[in-house]
Design goal:
Helices cover 4% and strands 50% of the residues. The protein is mainly beta and 852 residues long. This is Carbohydrate binding family 9 domain-containing protein.
């Protein structure tokens, strides 16, 4: 143990760890909040009483009365130099809104990039942004960005969610090009932000400009990349007097209509159906700090289709959240990673367990739970206390079962009426510190189980923002019976705790982390955890060169060493050594890098699918994994990203037979072609091939298969080749900065071919099995998502969506190994088609009152 500890420490000090990923279209991560040593820049806002016309001209005399913010400082690619082509920004305000006027001087008209896109997307374009820390807590902020083409983007900044572009506010902006300059004029109503009731206020303030021609980012208040955090490096906005938070009350009603055609509907049901829906989203500012958001009878039928995959692992697949209500303004609820919003409205818990009598078949079995409503209350007081409350209700869900002889139908409950609730308290402290308390609760009606999870978090940093310690402790509690059973839940009480310490600022950073998840810890009723019963410790280090040298803009080296045990019983699982590197070349902005990992022999206790864990494991030979990547300059009309990698396994001679060596290959190809500022094509190809992979036989053993009967009660493993190909083609045409059309096609195919089988015994022993059933498998998924979107007024939108979906799973002799056979089979299989129209109209109380 002493030798292992010394090794961990040595690797942490000598190794190098990757920096946080920073979106190329966004400022750095906002996780830190300690004061920066350099003096804060200040800008005074000027109160006005006359109207400002939003046209991107700045011809009102009022603009000339305001002080100017200029002399921006470069952050990327070369930190430190002052801008050569000045930016001039002024701020005005009245009783209703803040007005921002910005002039971006440039060298020539054609050096101003203006590619159009959908909202919240910042492609090959110049842009200007203003960032506001309205409570001046150096932790949380708002961002409002407009491109040279007039496309708007907005984001929230917080320690929990980082930079969150899913947040949307109702505000307006206009841009115009004047010779070698371009101008941005913005109006941000007070209803879009939250602030205190103090008579005189001082806000955190930042401006950002991107000159895409040279891929340069400039900030008004210098943002040093070696300093941890973003919001803590902003300047200050002064001169704000007599601001009164308005009554923030808005209603966004919607109506939608669907035409759905499903050629696979069961006999006796209609294959073409229509439906009409109506509901509304409500926002109400309870006071100057807190807002209630509610969605009544929500309709999420137009969100992008999930990327379905063949899952051979023992863990569930985590899907991306595409429902706007669950992605915007959720930074408080994401504290501690205890909230996985896809649980709300998810597949019914009894979906796969519908009991059938003789001569019965399932006619209808809804795969989603329809929500009745969902409500959020969130905000932060002037003392830095963040409070969040979330609640959602879902109705009963029933499957319909029909007797094939009599035609009689009956309903089977698959999901009881349920209530989902989250409560969060988050206190911001000085020096980038905070403490938080989170509670999640799921209550289900009827004779089934309820779940509750409570967690406490903390982070403390020193005054110089150079070192920090963080951690958490979480307790999960479940009570009741398994759904549809009299058997009690067996994981009633569990816990998790984490603790970490490290150096967080400077060119060289490092840290140590330790985590335990008990064998009964289970947050998955409203959160997501892929596997509990773990003890994990890791050490990492990172060395970053931020300033250009030689022929490169920057350079990052990073490494990590980790060790994992089973919690109960305490048994070794795995250990890994990781190293990586990336850099960007100065002249052509070519990005290259690699990731390397070596894992000694490890024991996989989860793959056998037996509980409790400990007796059985799959032995994984020592392996080395490497992947390299290259990304070309995205300013060019044609840009390409590629990657390729391989995993090489050692021979496993301890088995009773000569098992071929395991290998894994993978590659990706991601070209993008921009025809002009309106039309862009994108394509992605991901390919992987796993040879001689060892794993649990997908689908398990069945008592209905006579070839399975001799192996009942045993753990059957298979040696298999798995080939997976994913193709995604996208075309986007943006008519104006408020009207766009996107078309996305995705085809996924995965083929599993078994070579032989073994029976797994205790202590990882495997013995060849004379198992004769064909378990080959081919899974295909095909989706089309076509979306026309028009923002015809601030906060108001028309969406027309066509969705086409189909999937097939071919088993045993029907499995097809050839890619084009699978593609043709997928195309020719009957698909579900849906065409929908949805109209949302934003109604603001203050606007209606002024008109009245």
């Amino acid at each position: 143990m002493k030798t292992c500890t010394i090794l961990l420490l040595a690797l942490a000090l000598l190794g190098l760890e990757a920096p946080r990923a920073i979106a190329q279209t966004a400022p750095p991560s906002p996780t830190a909040s300690a004061p920066v040593a350099t003096p804060k820049r200040q800008l005074q806002a000027v109160r006005i009483s006359e109207a400002i016309k939003l046209d991107g001209v700045l011809d009102e005399a009022l603009w000339q009365q305001a002080p100017v913010a200029t002399d921006f400082i470069q952050n990327r690619p070369k930190p430190g130099p002052h801008e050569q082509h000045p930016t001039e920004v002024r701020i005005l305000y009245d009783d209703a809104a803040i007005y921002v006027g910005a002039i971006m001087h440039d060298v020539a008209p054609d050096s101003i990039k203006r590619e159009l896109s959908a909202r919240d997307n910042l492609p090959n374009t110049d842009f200007f942004g203003i960032f506001l820390d309205t409570y001046h807590d150096k932790l949380n902020g708002y961002g409002f960005i407009v491109t040279a083409g007039g496309v708007q983007a907005d984001a929230r900044y917080s320690p929990a969610s980082g930079e969150d572009f899913a947040w949307n506010a109702v505000w307006d902006a206009r841009t115009a090009q004047r010779g070698t300059d371009w101008v941005a004029e913005m109006r941000i109503p007070y209803s879009a932000i939250r602030f205190s009731t103090a008579e005189v206020q001082q806000w955190g303030l930042q401006f950002m400009r991107r000159r895409q021609a040279l891929r340069q980012d400039f900030f008004w208040s210098e943002v040093k990349p070696e300093v941890d955090g973003f919001v803590n490096q902003w300047g200050e906005l002064t001169g704000l007097k007599g601001l009164k938070p308005p009554l923030r009350l808005s209603l966004t009603p919607y109506i939608s209509g669907y035409v759905n055609h499903n050629p696979l509907n069961a006999e006796g049901t209609r294959r073409t159906t229509t439906s009409f829906n109506g509901g509304a989203d409500v926002k109400w500012g309870i006071n100057e700090s807190f807002t209630l958001d509610a969605t009544l009878v929500p309709d999420f039928g137009q969100v992008q289709s999930d990327n379905q995959v063949l899952n051979l692992s023992p863990f569930e697949v985590q899907f991306q959240e595409n429902r706007q209500f669950f992605t915007e303004g959720t930074e408080l609820f994401n504290k501690g990673n205890l909230f996985y919003s896809r649980r709300v409205g998810a597949t019914p818990i009894g979906f796969y367990g519908v009991g059938l009598a003789d001569n019965e078949k399932i006619v209808r079995n809804p795969a989603e739970t329809r929500l009745l409503n969902a409500t959020k209350i969130s905000g932060r007081t002037s003392k830095g206390l963040g409070i969040g409350l979330f609640n959602a209700l879902s109705n009963d869900v029933y499957a319909t079962v029909r007797n094939t002889e009599t035609g009689e139908e009956r309903e089977v409950l698959t999901q009881p009426f349920s209530n989902y609730n989250i409560a969060v308290l988050d206190q911001s402290l000085k020096n980038n510190s905070y403490v938080s308390l989170i509670n999640t609760n799921v209550t289900r009606w009827g004779s089934t189980y309820d779940a509750n999870v409570t967690g406490g978090l903390f982070r403390f940093a020193n005054k110089k923002n150079s070192y920090a310690v963080d951690g958490s402790i979480v307790y999960s509690r479940r009570r009741g019976n398994q759904f549809g059973s009299d058997e009690a839940i067996d994981d009633q009480n569990g816990f998790k705790y984490t603790v970490g310490v490290g150096k967080i600022s400077g060119n060289f950073t490092w840290g140590f982390n330790h985590r335990i998840e008990s064998d009964h810890y289970n947050p998955n009723d409203l959160g997501i955890l892929f596997g509990n019963n773990n003890i994990t410790q890791s050490a990492y280090a990172n060395y970053r060169i931020f300033k250009p040298f030689w022929k490169v803009n920057n350079m990052n080296f990073y490494s990590e060493v980790g060790h994992q045990l089973l919690y109960r019983p305490t048994l070794f699982q795995n250990m890994y050594f990781y190293n990586g590197f990336n850099t960007t070349f100065t002249k052509n902005f070519l990005q290259v890098g690699y990731d390397f990992m070596h894992t000694p022999v490890s024991h996989d206790f989860f793959e056998p699918r037996t509980f409790p864990l400990g007796d059985y494991y799959v032995r994984v030979p020592a392996n080395t994994d490497w992947i390299g990547f290259l990304n070309s300059d995205t300013r060019k009309r044609l840009s390409v990203g590629v990657n390729a990698g391989a995993t090489y396994y050692a021979e496993d001679e301890r088995l009773a037979r000569n098992r071929p060596r395991r290998l894994r290959y993978r590659a990706g190809f991601y070209p993008r072609f921009r025809v002009n500022d309106h039309l862009t094509f994108r394509y992605s190809l991901d390919w992987s091939l796993q040879r001689n992979q060892i794993g649990y036989v997908n689908g398990g053993l069945s008592t209905d298969e006579y070839l399975d009967l001799p192996f009942q009660g045993q753990i059957l493993l298979g040696r298999r080749n798995v080939a997976t190909v994913t193709n995604v083609a996208q075309v986007a045409y943006t008519f104006t900065n408020r009207m766009s059309f996107t078309l996305r096609l995705r085809h996924y195919t995965s083929n599993v071919r078994y070579q032989d089988f073994t029976v797994l015994k205790e202590d990882g022993q495997e013995f060849l099995a004379d198992y004769r059933r064909n378990r080959d498998n081919t899974y295909n998924a095909f989706n089309v998502d076509a979306v026309y979107s028009w923002w015809f007024a601030p906060g108001s939108q028309v969406n027309i969506v066509w969705k086409n979906a189909g999937n097939t799973e071919l088993l045993a002799e029907r499995a097809t190994p050839q890619y084009f056979d699978n593609f043709n089979n997928t195309i020719n299989t009957p698909h579900n088609n849906s065409l929908s129209v949805k109209v949302l109209y934003y109604l603001d109380y203050l606007t209606l009152r002024r008109r009245r």
